[in-house]
Amino acid sequence: MITMMTKVNVKGITGKSISEFLLNCTDKEYQRWWKGVHLSFNTIKRYPDNIGNLVYFDELVGKHRLKFKGQITEIIPGKKLVWQMKKFVNLPGWLTLVFEDSNNGVEITHTITIGFNGAGRILDPLLKAYFSDDFEKEMNEHAQIEFHKLANILS
Question: What's the predicted TM-score (pTM) here?
């Protein structure tokens, strides 16, 4: 299992404001968030409680382009959002955002988890070829920048 975690402290916003933004984000808002880097983020299929919502992501992370669908598998309003990555079928990859509000703002824990359980773990080294140490460094830098940019939009 590959886990990449970044913690970002952002002043002036809350977990609730970030959650609501992401649950209702359109391509236009996503592109405004980080012009030229955030290319597309929109809900393809929506459910009344948002569990199962299918979104399309397209963004640049360093020299990598991430394009995939993500299905919301867990929501705790203002506290946690989890998407499972999809390309035709569910993939063994999850993006988790956890929000912990404080008097100053919010601490965001951005976690990417990729890999198989059980016997499928034998394939994890193949995943590590793409999700390398360089990718992890680029993702960490990306998350640090993007959430501060989001604060400028939401505050």
Answer: 0.93
Query: For the sheet containing 38-45, what is the strand order?
Result: 2-11, 105-114, 89-101, 80-87, 64-76, 54-61, 38-45
Cβ atoms < 10 Å from Cβ of 62: 14
Hey, what are 131's tokens?
């999700």
What's the one-letter identity of residue 86?
A: K
Which among 27, 24, 19, 6 has a CA at the least distance from the CA of 81? 19
Q: Which two tokens stand for residue 151?
A: 């604060």
Ordered domains of the chain (ranges, CATH): 2-154 (3.30.530.20)
pLDDT digits (tens, 9 = 90+) for 99-120: 999 999 999 999 999 987 777 7
Q: Is 125 helix (H, G, I), strand (E, B) or coil?
A: helix
In angstroms, the CA 51 to CA 82 distance is 10
Which among 20, 69, 7 has a CA at the least distance from the CA of 44? Answer: 69
